[in-house]
Amino acid sequence: MNRPRGMTRRQVVAVSVAAFSGAAIGTAGAPAAAAAVGQASADRNGQPWRDPGLPAHRRADALLRAMTFEEQVTLVTAVDAKDFAPLGHLGIPAMTRVDASDGLRGDTGVTAFPAPNALAATFDTDLAQRYGAAVGAEARAKGWNVLLGPTLDIDRDPRNGRECEGYGEDPLLSGSIGAAVTRGFQSQDVIAQLKHFTVYNQENARYYLDVRISERALREIHYPAFEQAIREGGALSVMGSYPMVNGVYCCQDPHIIGALKEDLGLEGYLGTDFYPQGDRVESFRAGVDSGALIPDTPKEAFTDGRIPAERTRDAARRILYALFASGAYDNPLPDAPAEIVTSGAHQRLARVTGEGATVLLRNEGGLLPLSGRQTVAVIGPAGKDAITGVEGSSYVDPGDFTTALEAVRAKAGADRVLFSQGSLGDVALPLIPADVLTAPAGGAGLRAEFFAGEDFEGAPIATAVTPTVDFRSGDPVEGLPASWSARWTGTITPPVTGWVRVAALLSGAAKVVIDGTTVFSGSRYLWDSWLGPNESAIGGVVELEGGRPVPLTVEYSTRDAGDRGPSMKLGWQPHSLIPAAVETAAKADVAVVFVNNYTGEAIDRDDLSLPGDQDRLIEAVAAANPRTVVVLNTSGPMLMPWLNRVRGVLQAWYLGAATGTAVANVLYGDADPGGRLPVTFPAREDQGPTRYTGSKSDGVGGEVVYDEGVHVGYRWYYKHGETPLFPFGHGLSYTSFSSGRPRVRSLHRGEDAAEVRVEVRNTGRRTGSHVVQVYVGHLPTHTDTPARRLAGFRKVTLSPGRRQTVTVTVPRRAVSYWHEERGRWVTPRGRVAVYVGDSVAAAEYAGSITVR
User: Could you tell me the pTM of the whole model?
Assistant: First the structure.
């Protein structure tokens, strides 16, 4: 490529990456380059900061000197585009922000890419950089120059409602994928804002949660991915998180912020999440640099002495540095956002990512890939009712995507594909109608008793007969106190015999008992993540006899109700779809059952079971057709009580616009299942670190102790001698591989501790991918260190008979630990075992590193 005169290296990279990723949508390539060239002679009127040939830090210093103090305050407190107008004469562009973990939240005509944890499952950093470049290109075309992402929160608990927005449980994998996405983002002349720093690992009580954690765990588990994305990815901004750490809010803790800027290397600026709790002035004093997401920042605090002037200048300089270093200053956004920014190339990239992310967990007897000559029963939510992405801040509209049912029909031919719904999946259910409910005194509906307080104690303060249980964002009767409870009683008469699903949209705590069986008991503080098409229901299943009235009791209290107020809508599905699905499955050569779960911001999962009747559906179909495959269209790990009764299991995650095409290509062998697990799949509900048990409400404080220390994810399983359902790094292929004897060579230079080389050969008959995973063992110290720690990985794709020597470098940090008393990293001298394999459980001893 000829380099246009006056273009910086960053601008050349932006053009080349945009072209490589198929991002030729009008704003990320030639126009950006032309704008840069136009700035080459911009050192006019004594304004050196306009010269793109100068280093970013010198330009930032020059512009800072030219700004009045009032202009600096404007820059650090600006929220909307109009707030930047007073800075236009300096060439400072409006900084426009968009959530962008897996595409552009809130926009249409964009590409809905597979969820971030699906991208992590590819173990492919080159693909991750292309993914990031495509999202960055679409952002510029839509008029955004600050991308809120990638998300680097470590997956501590798979019940986390935002689990799939991050890159898994391992700091090295998360940092490697995050750094690659960051490079991709910023190659398009936009700023990447990493989120959320730090220990943002659950949604329950997120605004007031106090995380009790050791400094060592912060340094070894929760900081490294951010450091890698900053140092290797060049990230220019970081978003502070909501929780408190050891009693101090993250966004006003000078110790945490100091570590970010001084130890982790952030030269750019620190922003916050939307409206964090805590004191705005103290946040800026502690090191927050931008009030873009906290519109209530008091501007007078910058001039009345509460926020030192030097702190304001530092904050402004950091923002300016990010604008210059990213290219956002020199390459203006389009005058008007494009209506459609997705492209054929980006849709293909989404599909390739989905194929590379899909994990083949089980394939007994080589049932997969399927043959186009087989009749296939497709069962479950495999149409437009599929869940394509996490709801909340990362939800991206997939547009008119190809469904799995459509894609399978295209592979096998419509005449070979039978369909039965089987289950509605994880969805809200229609309201239970009054005509199937009977109050104790007769008549339609239920008798309700209301009590002061949340414990159903004392005499009722009100009674009523209600047609059903349905009140949304308010009290069901007038005159109730702030905290109250209620009990509805009567009978319910199902129309037919069979399994009945009951579910509630809920803000508060509820228990439903039918015919002596507790159908569900639990709480939520929110039933809707506000962004996305679905709502989050809590429910269960009970078997009833048609036409026979049975007792029904519904209890509700305002415990855990969020700031939207108490809410409950009790719904049902009286007609089970399972019998028809069983009949369909029995007629086909193979049955493919699609199942899903809802997840989203502000709503943690209650457990790891498939919601509703989906476990029963799988068991019933597998009994009718022993050649059953399950496709998990889920946010992450699920318990699988039916595992040994099915022949195949695919973990498909949320795949965005590729939800149908990628899965069908894997099912039929047009693509190898390239994914490997970026998280451990528990075998039981009680496996994993200590869970939070406090209030779920967003308005009530709670505390959680990270007593696992540095033993997160697969490290916890080794520490406690536990066996998971599927280990970290696990994933099968349609072909087979053999590996030669690994060679471990110790290095005694700079940041590298060792080099591991191994020859990999495809010994099967298909092209496939293999991920070489290198782990290190306990360190030679009396300090408690993990029995296994991922130290490096490399993904290779080989055609049949081909071989390749793979080299993985082990960084010195992988054989070091954080010494709390000394306040620094320590590398103990001695020998460290090295393990190589295709999962953490399958990794075998390969030699040792001699650390000096």
Answer: 0.94
